[in-house]
Amino acid sequence: MKFYILxxxxxxxxxxxxxxxxxxxxxxxxISLNEVVGVNVKVIGARNSSTPTINTNENFNIQHEGSSSxxxxxxxxxxxxxxxQYQLSPIKPGTFTLGPATVEVNGKEFTSNTISIKVGGTTxxxxxxxxxxxxxxxxxxxxxxxxxxxxxxxxFNKVQLYNSTLEIPKFDGFISESLGSEKSIIKIINGVRWxxxxxxxxxxxxxxxxxxxxxxxxxxxxxxxxxxxxxxxKPVRLISETVKIKIKELPLANKPANFLGLxxxxxxxxxxxxxxxxxxxxxxxxxxxSGIGDSRxxxxxxxxxxxxxxxxxxxxxxKTIQGDQIKSVKTFKKAIVPQKAGTIMLPAIEITFFNPxxxxxxxxxxxxxxxxxxxxENGEDELKMATFNNLTSEKRNINLxxxxxxxxxxxPGVLEGNFTKKINISHLYVFNILTFVLYIFLxxxxxxxxxxxxxxxxxxxxxxxxxxxxxxxxxxxxVNFASHASTMLREYLxxxxxxxxKSITTFDLDKIxxxxxxxxxxxxxxxxxxxxxxxFQFGGITISDQEKDKLLVTLVKIVKKLEKEI
Length: 566
Prior knowledge:
- By secondary structure, this protein is α+β, with helices and mostly antiparallel strands.
- The protein is 23% helix and 39% strand.
- It is built from 8 helices and 31 strands.
- The longest helix is centred in the last third of the chain and has 30 residues, at 425-454.
């Protein structure tokens, strides 16, 4: 009887699964590049299903907005349906296929239909006639390989935008460096209050040729009307123009033979620890190369001399952002040992770099350094051979001239008696065992320290929470609260996942955690706090102390969950 009941239950379950349907719908299948369109995924016949994943084929950005459930009873038949709402924004013009959407019910996957969407170009409306618009531009149209270029993105709005999410383009062919958090100012134009938000990125080209930097964009919501029952919002997408730049090769004319790829404007300084030393002693020579540009990969400067032995130490490098430029300092330390006495000249050291401002190769050199080398205490340290007189082949008897301070034991028997009685054998065993254990412990500690020094990624990952926690203590009192909170969260994720944290956007999170063990609940909470922080950054909304407290609690909660799950 039980067997038949089990068979019936399996048949009913299969019939229920067979009735599950998934439908993919869009508000419009023809849109422009700077529009946002609503997408709906409707799951019919399933009470508990996973959040749908929609295949965009990397032609669209998509963001989950929420879901709603409905139960309808018609002529005694009960139908359960769940609708998931999304906001879809195109990445490039063309005709593309959206879908299918996939959901999982009781371990089985169900897919929807697909939809063809035609994406046109941007709608051109003069900026003066808009309530909001964006701009992106470079500070130059041509640059040399390795020259610093400034990319600027600006948002202008005279109405409030909510849930704003910024998408900075990928700078292929460039090394990118953020020039700090966004800066906002208020301008009054023709009696109208405008808010201008600016974000700058430093670019260093790594290849030559003609480049097109893709558009940057902001997805946001605009309040259309408000009533007692709530606000009606409209999704908007602001997209900048493509930016073009030509990257040129460095000129071959007048290129010095000692040019080693240093680009910018630099100077070199030297200092010596001691000018007066004795032969056989060493002194430290310090070389400092500093200026505008990145000198990280500049090699050890050579010193052409036979009067000194030179031992190179590991160089140090420091880079800072000052204004809109990278300034760097690379320091080399060398131990130099003179090979002879007298006044010896340490020759001048020259570096060559290409200056993009003048368009020429330039050189800087140090002054020669005079070092006074005194003879060592043993004169010229000449080894003198001993001479032996009256050498004969006559065999002589060995005479005992003196005895050692300590007694000499000629056989083991002398160790017996009082000497061995003073030693406890068990203590000797314990001492030997402890010595061996201590050796193993120190050997293990040394290996662990070496592994930690080599495993930079592991160090970065392990220190991520500590860095976040240290910055969190002063977060509430920061002037740009939302900006600092957003940067902290992104840099934390960057350290944990070995990514460039500052370039992570809300839309990147699905791709980043696609194959991760992070739960869907944590991912949704993470995307929500990203959206909230972006909203406060770019939406022109003033954040209250009460909202700050809520965000602080949420921020700590999500980071602690990520610590456990990543």
